[in-house]
User: What shape does this take?
Amino acid sequence: MENNIITLTGTVQSQAEYSHSVLGENFYSFMLRVPRLSENEDLLPVTVSENQLDTSLVQEGNKIKIKGQLRSYNKYTQTKTRLILTVFAKGIAPALPDDNENPNEIFINGFICKEPIYRRTPFGREITDLIVAVNRAFNRSDYIPAIAWGKNALYSENLEVGSNVMLWGRLQSRNYNKRISENETEVRTAYELSITKIEKLA
Assistant: This one.
């Protein structure tokens, strides 16, 4: 069974632009606007190999369906390292009407790699933040931030580091204000797996 699967249906928000090269293979990135069941939307980053990129399909305003994996990598700056998340597309096709029924689905099977953090929102909602390591080929791992609510939050806060868990949910984007100096903040976007179901494996 695959341990990292994501399926998204949405509208291309930006043209595909060159991102980077690995072993002579070029990769491109673009943003995909994915509707939620509420009236909100998520704006999600997508990375695709030139071998999978159909430029006539990945055009701003086109509705497409993507199947792939949620991956992470470290972005190094002069002062610190940031964890960057992106949807790695393994297949892109035109969206069909039935694809809108559940436009944002993700499943991962990984290991808790940091102590869960339980908290309450100002409105009293219970939340637990998790970081899950998902194994990939060539001895690499993706580190996926995840957030659990309500009963799932109460269950998740007691998970031990090293626990093997399966998570189902959706990938969401969230803007927040990051303080970068005493008098200056900037708006940043965080991406995380919003958990709808969680199971601990024996």
User: Anything to note?
Assistant: The mean pLDDT is 92. The helical segments are 150-156. The longest strand covers residues 164-181. The longest helix spans residues 150-156.
